[in-house]
Records
---
Amino acid sequence: MTPTAAEDLAFSSVVELAGLVRARKMSPVELVRAYLARIERLDARLRAYITVLPEAALEAGRRAEAAVMRGGPLGPPLGPLHGVPYAVKDQFDTAGVATTAGSRILEHNIPIEDATVVARIGAAGGILLGKLNLTEFALGGTRRFPFGQPRNPWNTDHDPGGSSSGSGIAVAAALCAASLGEDTGGSVRSPASWCGVVGLRPTWGRVSRYGSFPLSWSMDTAGPLTRTVEDAAFMLGVIAGSDPRDPLTSRRPVPDYSAALHDGVRGLRIGIIRELTFGAETDVEVREAVTAAARRLEGLGAAVEETSLPLVLLAGAIFMALADADGAGVHQHWLRTRPMDYDEGTRKRLLTASLIPSAAGQQAARARALLRAQLHAALAQYDLLLCPTAHQAAPPIAAGQAPITSRAEVADRFFTRRSYVTPAALAGTPAIALPCGFTSAGLPISLQLIGRPFDEPTVLRAARAYEQATDWARRRPPLG
């Protein structure tokens, strides 16, 4: 296989790869080898992976190939992801494989069973390539990554986003066909935004959290990162559904998320969130790309107009008051017994959250209820809400590690960017991030669409219509 053909194969969609395997036009073993070769060539620079599983993945590929060859009318049924290599954030348990949550504290943690989402992907025929890098304990703000600094494939001096950093990098650089991340307050959509891929946060309760290291019980959710919207719909269909081991999962039937993908946007009403799209915090290039995307959706038949959510700019502060306090509770024991085993940034953030007064926590909870009411009221008027996924393209890694010198800088660094992704998390609604342009420096810009609870089909349908009308998803990072 020529280098060009190998790269084209690696950048193929999940749906395409599954079809090639099923049609016996591509061996799962060759797919695994293609991705392992890219990991070997690129990951020392990108640090997407914490653990790579070459022997196990190749053995799984051989079993998948044998099953395909035994196929036919009387052969064993093949799962929808049969033979497709994927990777998961190292926050999800994997039987017999270390699950570190990006921390030295869990460096030797070997689970005895898979997380529910990992088990479901495995049952669908997916082949696990390895475990992906993340900010420590999925919290964000890690200063020194224990397993290597993850880097943006579009410019390795820039941040890939977090907390599912490796999940965004691996998909953007084609180090796997698709990945799984976890989104508490934007941890799927932020790396998708800065790495130029698709990231889907499902409705809270749509996907089981069993076997995922927790941060905030009322917001954590697993979600796919993929190169196309169609693949996101495909992956969601595999992992969604109730789970008796996670009593907070919904018992609603799981629809066919791919069924309405080609229905377009004609007749949909879309509200542009004024505060997030046109506010002073939003970079000019981001604003221009997102408003151009809104015009494209309007040209495709949607009715698009501005709407206001007055509380939305406080979403980042509301989120941190609640989620960080939840995280401090999760880590209470280790904060007392192993404080110096945490990264400095993680330790400071958790210890600070441990000191949040109960009155402030209650105030944040009330503010969350008001913001959720505003967002749901807007979604009663519109089918979807539209805004940037982030207020800027990926910043330099050094900018996030520089000392903080003022209160204004605290607000800018910790609250501003989170106010773009946390509204959907605070309200429990689905949201998708997808590419909508590039800055003059060649960094991806991302559009976000937010939908009503359990209305992922409309979110995916609109995202797919926009994706098909543009060529952003077909661009590849300049990795050499």
Note: The chain has one domain: 3-474.
---
Amino acid sequence: MTLTKRGLVLCSSAVVLSTVAVVGAGVHLPRTQAFFKESPKALIDEVWQIINYNYVDATFNQVDWRQVRREYLNKSYANQEEAYTAIKEMLGKLDDPYTRFMDPQEYKNMQIDTSGELTGVGITISKDEETNRLIVISPIEETPAFKAGIMARDIITKIDGKSTQGMEINDAVKLIRGKPGTTVTLTIQRGSRIRNFTIERARIKLHAVRSRVENTSQGKIGYIRLTQFSAQAPKEMREAIRNLERKNVEGYVLDLRSNPGGLLYASVDIARMFLDRGKIVSTVYRKGVVEEQKANNRAITNKPVVILVDGGSASASEILSGALKDNGRAVLVGTKTFGKGLVQSVRPLGDGSGLAVTIAKYLTPSGRDINKEGIPPNIIIELSDADREKLQKDRTLIGTLGDPQFSKALTILNQEIRAKK
């Protein structure tokens, strides 16, 4: 089966409260939605087939996948809802939080998000594989969650008073999403502290790239903050770099902090803007097929680069930072990245629902498998809780001298510029 690279999803969660993408390829019989609604077993078998042919782990996490098919097709299902419940149970046997089922409304919401606009509070969530608890990968900047003070690595213990213990990501998303103007209360555990955050939902327009010029002792520095790898991100990044080049900047600080990922092709395209040559990423599929993405001698700039990363920098962020680090093109400053090295494709199903399935893992140019490990920065700079709260209360400080990690990145970049001169 052929999958377009433009449809591969690299996010910290297969269903997040931010932008993801849809791939049109799937295992489909030429049947109508009405057929699948009248025959719930057909939908269950369709999901089983997609997993059987495409799931990254040929052992299915040591599960007898053929026996699973017999088990679920031998049951009777009165309606679609029972089939949906069965599919979720079936996928749960894989013990993979990134492979998940979306009912038609969830799938529709995900497609709406792909347009660069979402309705909700603006957080990316995942499930901790060891503790089985819901965690915040990152709040999206300038969203209600960000303004309320939600932080990366916060643990969501309750949603509107309902415990999240054992809750699936899909179910959490349903509870957190809602009409603009309504509120949701998230109970957050941060270290030993428990706090309630009541947040008003809103319609959120997403802008992937922000940039500006910083004047330093070594001349003008280009600061670029990339918040997500959306379909629009490469275009916005290209425009930002070209604009900064026209202003004769001496180097770049690329801020990937709290960037949860997005589209695989977006990370590759952006890496090529900084790399003239070298490997960017290797994608390894179940059958051992390896696809390598490389630079294509079309870099927009060869000036020094420092990349800011933290525990909220995941997936596509790790591909970009790993590619530039391994090729000696950039210095990484901050804290270790999230550690999500798996690739999902998102597929439509016969009745209008959707399926996100882990189809591959990726390796950085040096062959590093960062899944659950993350990428360590060249220079570690931790933020205190007080620093993080200060930056979230006053987001205008992010990427300024009032931001300790940015300040250090600026120092390192000036050293790189002096060395190059």
Note: The chain has two domains: 1-116+206-416, 118-205.
---
Amino acid sequence: MPAEWEPHEATWLAWPHERSDWPGKFGPIPWVYAEIIRQLARVERVRLIVESRQAIPAVRRTLERAGANLGAVEFFVCPTDRGWLRDAGPLFLKGPRGEVALTDWLFNGWAKYDNWRRDNRVPAFIARRLGLRRWPTGIVLEGGSIDVNGRGSLLTTEECLLSPVQARNPHLSRQDLEAAFARFLGARHVLWLAGGIAGDDTHGHVDDIARFVGPSTVVAAVEEDPSDPNYEPLRENLKRLKSMRDQDGNPLRIVRLPMPEPVFFAGQRLPASYANFYIANRLVLVPTFNDANDRRALDVLARLFADREVVGIGCRDLILGLGAIHCLTQPQPA
């Protein structure tokens, strides 16, 4: 499985339609998606899943009004339940001669929701449409629960993959999962962090807390307020990272990434984190929250990605769906 910063042929997204994901606040959501697609279409192809052929004209009008380059957008009709493609989509692979294939992991609505069966069919649909080899794994795994450096190392959390709460694979041990990562993703060195952040209904996805930004460099979300529920869990993850090494035995370089002030809607704590960024060709899209730390986070990532433009995307509305930019996107390698 290649690192996200390696060249992409395209980014896959699914147009939003499940209003219950953003209760009482769905109106602005298509415009947030349109801005994400506008930015991506400047640097690579966007492959956009929509619910029906009849929906395409309205989506095209929205993208056109947002100023997106429609020449870089391809539409694919495939009904979905929710369409968070980081988790329900395929995880793409690259072979030794550069050939692209994909793995099809089971998706079960984060072991929490009942409507997941259409989402679970998305990887097979994409494999058919692209004519790519597909490996069904028979194991439940969401793309947001792992992060890779493309060299054989994989980051994940015990809370998500080993906890009895929202257990994805209660019959599998830590060793079983590590063997599956080696077999299906070529990741033979697994780095286990502890847990995720407050408000995350996936129960511990790693893409809100720590991300590879280079072969041996990891950004780690850090909460500076000792009274915040995220303070101790993120401190524990940082402690673990400092003792970890990459697949070649080199110590990791750890870069701290601030957290935004807590984001609430209707009394609900939402999983706002700058770590949920997406690395595209010549571009990094970063969730922002109208927060004083937005600039600090953008500056940290701009220093790490000197070869890319780092752009903030306002996600204060989007995060009510309990996910941000990384959760929506699935890179297809070149």
Note: The two ends are 12 Å apart (CA to CA).
